[in-house]
């Protein structure tokens, strides 16, 4: 095993296996999660990228200069640390608006059928055929309308835990929304700090993985795929924007798409506040 990269926010401690998937092994301790991932998942604030994931790993220990996977010790080369902070960029608002519109259209064409792309394309609602799916769809639309109207606490509470999958669609949306707000706060002349606080404190859920993503979004920490997407959003190179958006969509089944939908809403809220 060899470490290709590791996040800059990984705490020291001992962590037990929480869940195992093809591209990630998640370890938890005291409500906190660290993930061993492969190149396909890539760098993140709490990720350790390995050439090959260790099958059957049960325990992870992080020390100042070493990582222990069960009894295996791996050196942490400081040069491989990933900077997970939001990118600080010069933004032309007109360019950002234009690229957000492009990203919406990209999601309509490429996002999974049962993702939140229906917020941009009503015809996508046809994919939701079962009764509980239709109810979920209507609840999402109502919750997003609350956010748009400035009812941030109620909107966040209505979205958290809503949807399907390991991380429900509503949680993924809120992670993207907080990331978009944080990105706008850093790079545009807008004060959305109170909105971020209101959304985050009402978005925290019982889902450990969702909470880890929400905490990163609240703290202004992003994985490399999202970081590349944010950089592409402020430039006039839509071919690169399409490539970075495509990479972001490959996070989970609908999680990447649902995060991107929330990111768009968060960025637009920041633009309106500027």
How many angstroms separate the termini?
47 Å
Please count the helical segments.
9
- Kindly provide the radius of gyration, computed on alpha-carbon positions and rounded to a whole number of angstroms: 18 Å
The helical percent reads: 40-55%
- Form type: globular
Structural class comes to: alpha+beta
Counted up, domains total 2
Low-confidence stretches: none
Proportion in β-strands: 15-25%
Number of extended strands: 9
Kindly report the average pLDDT value.
96
Order of helices and strands: EEEEEEEEEHHHHHHHHH
**Largest sheet: number of strands, sense, barrel closure:** 9 strands, mixed
What spatial order of strands do you see in the largest sheet? Answer: 8-7-6-2-3-4-5-1-9
Write the layout of secondary structure elements.
Blueprint lengths: L2 E5 L5 E8 L3 E6 L2 E6 L9 E4 L8 E4 L3 E4 L2 E4 L5 E2 L10 H18 L20 H18 L3 H8 L9 H19 L5 H11 L4 H12 L4 H10 L4 H12 L5 H19 L1
Parallel strand pairs: 1-9, 4-5
Antiparallel strand pairs: 1-5, 2-3, 2-6, 3-4, 6-7, 7-8
